[in-house]
Design goal:
6 helices, 10% strand, alpha/beta
Length: 261
């Protein structure tokens, strides 16, 4: 747990220490199905551990940055078919993060960053950034907690661009963070090869996106190649992800859309 949790301050300490330059980081994870080999808290761990470590390092490097407790239950209804998934609907999630923005603004802070560990939150949080900005005047930001790093056997290993959920990256990160929660005897290659022929309809980077549930692809709710995961790849992912998150916080600290800084 980070020593920079805003909630460990008293009310008067918040008044004394928080200013318009303060950055408040709200990690957002998920509790959701991640196949037979990973725990439900996979995305929570990514947001909590990387987000917290980034806040710690950025504070040590001189930034005025604080963390709120990580949100566990978020918008992960693409996995609602699977027992164990706990999710909020879009209205509840949207209202929750906007009201968090209201509370952060009342502390006197000027910046709110969502450090996100779950892809299903991205679209909703992007809309919420503007809503919080409009209603409460905060500068608002969204950054990922898991960076993109070449796979263990090359740029994409054998995931063919489909390593988005429970594949090599996430499995490797949990092997690094909590190896006791990973069962590699159940890790397999779950890549929807039949989708690789489509040039325009893609998960990431293509001109055509599509709505999906995680049980659409003939796999056990996993999209990626978990069999290629390793703790060493997880360590590499951790190092790059932490560096990227800290660099993002430094840039956020000096960001002024009007160019006055």
């Amino acid at each position: 747990m980070t020593g920079r949790l805003l909630t460990e301050l008293s009310g008067p300490e918040v008044v004394a220490r928080v200013t318009k330059d303060t950055i408040v980081v709200q990690p957002t994870g998920a509790v959701e199905h991640h196949g037979p080999h990973l725990p439900l808290i996979t995305d929570f761990l990514l947001a909590d551990r990387i987000g917290g470590a980034a806040v710690e390092r950025a504070a040590a490097e001189g930034l005025d940055v604080w963390q709120l407790p990580t949100l566990a239950f978020t918008k992960s209804d693409e996995h609602s078919w699977a027992p164990g998934t706990v999710w909020l609907d879009e209205d509840t999630m949207f209202d929750t993060v906007v009201q968090i923005g209201r509370a952060v603004a009342l502390t006197g802070a000027g910046n709110l960053v969502f450090a996100n560990g779950h892809g299903g939150n991205v679209a909703l949080l992007q809309v919420a950034l503007r809503e919080i900005r409009k209603r409460h005047g905060l500068k608002t930001f969204l950054m990922p907690t898991l960076a993109r790093v070449p796979g263990p056997d090359g740029e994409d290993a054998d995931e063919r661009g489909f390593g988005i959920h429970g594949g090599a990256a996430e499995t490797s990160m949990i092997l690094h963070l909590r190896p006791d929660l990973v069962d590699m005897s159940k890790a397999e290659r779950w890549v929807p090869d039949h989708l690789a022929e489509f040039e325009r309809i893609r998960f990431n980077g293509g001109p055509v996106s599509f709505g999906w549930l995680s049980n659409d692809f003939g796999t056990p709710g996993v999209v990626g190649d978990a069999s290629r995961a390793s703790a060493s790849y997880g360590q590499a992912l951790w190092d790059v992800s932490l560096d990227e998150a800290v660099a993002s916080l430094h840039e956020i600290a000096r960001f002024d859309p009007a160019g006055r800084g």
